[in-house]
């Protein structure tokens, strides 16, 4: 081994196997994530589309539920129904069969939150503790069950508003029933898409995997390749989860389901082959390759849009038949032919499924509460901070104390300290503007139909903007929440506006304090163990895939691939969280090269597992490789430099050996305290 222009090289004189380029230069690693506290993070727009469909559904659900219950019962009860309708904000990307059951659970959670809030309204102290309990429980349940954004926030909002609706304990059944009506309306609105395109969620997920594959292919030879690799792996994992959720008994054996599963298998295999290509090239691929993947994304829903395989002939010209690039292009061409077919047989490539549609509910909740999971400290942080925020507001004499815990819950959804601080600033600025707007609206003598229409319009606008900016969404969310709170329990507008600004500032500060003081090191302390776990899984995959005496069946290959991919995604998630927990980031930043080397090693192991013609490896080589992984894992656990002996010569897997060496070097640098944040 040596260094050329700062890049690691392989000085082995043995010629590479046929079809494989010599492993000479290690691809440059991407710049580490740098979460910052700055104006761009507060006022800028995040990349991605606007939430038009999300906003439309939210507005329709709120207007229907709010108007119906207000007309049948009273405006104050209508506000509870409007809050219950926010079930329409959840499970937006999951298949309709799965969505129906999941939204029913979320609706039950909303009804329970209303009941808890109404029961606790006997005193402000009990109400503050109840809001905190709902916040912690909802965070634990949402993260354990992988409920996507908006997560626990609206459970907290529903519970808090329920504490001020008049009626007392005797009215709890009525409050819960009204919330159930709103939740039912939200359920119907969210499920309405099944009438138009019943398979759109799973088709969209597989198409997204192809689009991220195109982004990865464009990133080859650039410093962004590691980030693009992670994004593509996230998209592939999400597509697998969503397609599995769609496998109902009647649909699973249909040609349409078999075609979608076949395309998912293709994008998974192409992604792993692209991994080998990204680590073996320092120059970009021809532009037609990424464009071909983009066209495959369009062909998921429209088979006639499948690209012609001949479009890749120019890129193939001059390549050796067994080169990595040539094999990648062959996979893309075969995927295009598969996408064009409508008559997939259910016994074909895509039929094998070795997972349940969804993991058992109790198992997921238990896993989220385990000591190794980040869910438990996150849920405890949320519950304690929200309860303390409410109690502090009562001690300070805030009459409308519930706005303080609502704000604290909102800013804590940022995750790490940096994101929480940015979210706190966004919340404070958005609320300051939104309160003025809300005051102007409340000062108008609006009839009830106008109140319903304005609240629904603000909700639709907020949900449309939210995917791009929490700051600008807060400008619409604040007057919407003020309208609902004022309708539930009228209060002088001048006092409501003034108190809302102060409550937001206090709640934002309490939320940031909770992020700083409670379990701030949870991610950083788990990072070395998470890297070690990933390496152990990579070791298991490599030893089983390369052992000449082991014949892996399709089910075992699938499970090994699933487990290792999950570990790789978890590793990056833990690092991203840890590096944002300032000032702890100064201790985790030097581990970025370790994380990258561990990820690359894992993805190479996945590629080896997926290969159809892996050359045999001797038992001595496998034993030495296993010992190397054991030493690297032990060094991580013991926070020391690895004492790595000579690695085996593996001419069939030169990139793997290079990444293991790079991992050992990065660990030595980090242990010595000499790592630069970008090295």
From TrEMBL:
Residues annotated as region Disordered? 1-24
Pfam families for the chain: FUSC_2
Instruction: State the compartments where it is located.
Output: Membrane
Integral membrane bound transporter domain location: 389-513
Annotated TM spans: 60-84, 96-116, 122-141, 153-172, 178-196, 379-398, 432-458, 470-489, 501-519
Per UniProt, the keywords (alphabetical) are:
Membrane, Transmembrane, Transmembrane helix
- Cited InterPro entries: Memb_transporter_dom (IPR049453)
Q: What membrane topology does this protein have?
A: Multi-pass membrane protein
Would you tell me the protein name for this molecule? FUSC family protein
């Amino acid at each position: 081994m040596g260094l050329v222009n700062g890049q690691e090289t392989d000085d082995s004189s043995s010629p590479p196997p046929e079809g494989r380029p010599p492993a000479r230069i290690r691809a440059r690693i991407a710049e580490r994530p740098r979460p910052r506290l700055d104006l761009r993070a507060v006022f800028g727009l995040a990349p991605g589309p606007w939430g038009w469909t999300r906003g439309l559904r939210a507005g329709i659900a709120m207007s229907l539920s709010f108007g119906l219950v207000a007309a049948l019962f009273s405006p104050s009860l209508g506000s509870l129904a409007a809050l219950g309708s926010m079930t329409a904000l959840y499970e937006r990307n999951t298949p309709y069969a799965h969505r129906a059951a999941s939204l029913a659970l979320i609706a039950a959670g909303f009804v329970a939150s209303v009941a808890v809030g109404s029961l606790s309204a006997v005193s402000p102290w009990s109400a503050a503790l109840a809001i905190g309990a709902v916040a912690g429980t909802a965070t634990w349940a949402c993260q354990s069950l992988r409920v996507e954004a908006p997560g626990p926030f609206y459970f907290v909002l529903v519970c808090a508003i329920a504490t001020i609706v008049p009626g007392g304990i005797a009215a709890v059944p009525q409050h819960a029933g009204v919330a159930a009506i709103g939740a039912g309306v939200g359920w119907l609105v969210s499920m309405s898409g099944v009438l138009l395109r019943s398979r759109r969620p799973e088709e969209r997920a597989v198409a997204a995997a192809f689009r991220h594959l195109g982004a990865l292919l464009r990133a080859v030879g650039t410093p962004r390749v590691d980030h693009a690799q992670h994004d593509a792996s996230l998209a592939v994992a999400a597509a697998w989860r969503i397609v599995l959720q769609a496998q109902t008994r009647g649909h699973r054996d249909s040609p349409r389901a078999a075609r979608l599963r076949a395309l998912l298998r293709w994008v998974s295999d192409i992604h792993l082959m692209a991994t080998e290509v990204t680590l073996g090239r320092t120059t970009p691929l021809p532009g037609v390759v990424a464009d071909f993947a983009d066209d495959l994304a369009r062909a998921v829903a429209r088979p006639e849009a499948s690209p012609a395989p001949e479009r890749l002939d120019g890129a193939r010209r001059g390549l050796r038949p067994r080169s990595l690039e040539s094999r990648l292009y062959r996979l893309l061409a075969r995927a295009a032919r598969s996408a064009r077919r409508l008559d997939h047989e259910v016994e074909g490539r895509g039929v094998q499924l070795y997972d349940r549609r969804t993991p058992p509910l109790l198992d997921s909740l238990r896993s989220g509460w385990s000591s190794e999971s980040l869910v438990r400290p996150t849920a405890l942080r949320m519950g304690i901070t929200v309860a303390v925020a409410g109690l502090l507001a009562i001690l300070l004499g805030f009459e409308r104390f519930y706005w303080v815990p609502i704000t604290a819950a909102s800013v804590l959804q940022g995750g790490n300290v940096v994101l929480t601080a940015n979210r706190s600033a966004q919340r404070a600025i958005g609320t300051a503007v939104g309160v003025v707007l809300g005051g102007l609206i409340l000062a108008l003598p609006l009839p009830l139909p106008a109140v319903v229409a304005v609240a629904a319009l603000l909700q639709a606008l907020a949900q449309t903007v939210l995917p791009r900016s929490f700051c600008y969404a807060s400008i619409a969310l604040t007057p919407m929440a003020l309208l609902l709170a004022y309708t539930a329990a009228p209060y002088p507008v001048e006092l409501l506006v003034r108190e809302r600004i102060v409550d937001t500032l206090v709640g934002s500060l309490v939320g940031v304090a909770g992020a700083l003081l409670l379990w701030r090191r949870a991610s950083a302390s788990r990072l070395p163990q998470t890297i070690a776990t990933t390496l152990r899984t990579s070791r298991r995959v490599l030893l089983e895939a390369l052992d000449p005496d082991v014949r892996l069946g399709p089910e075992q290959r699938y499970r090994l691939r699933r487990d290792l991919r999950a570990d790789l995604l978890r590793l990056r998630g833990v690092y991203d969280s840890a590096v944002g927990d300032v000032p702890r980031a100064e201790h985790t930043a030097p581990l970025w090269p370790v994380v990258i080397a561990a990820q690359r090693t894992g993805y190479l192991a996945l590629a080896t597992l997926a290969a159809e013609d892996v050359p045999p490896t001797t038992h001595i080589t496998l034993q030495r490789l296993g010992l190397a992984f054991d030493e690297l894992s032990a060094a991580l656990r013991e926070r020391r430099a690895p004492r790595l002996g000579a690695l085996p010569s593996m001419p069939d897997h030169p990139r793997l050996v290079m990444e293991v060496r790079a991992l050992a070097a990065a660990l030595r640098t980090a242990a010595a305290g000499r790592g630069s944040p970008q090295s």
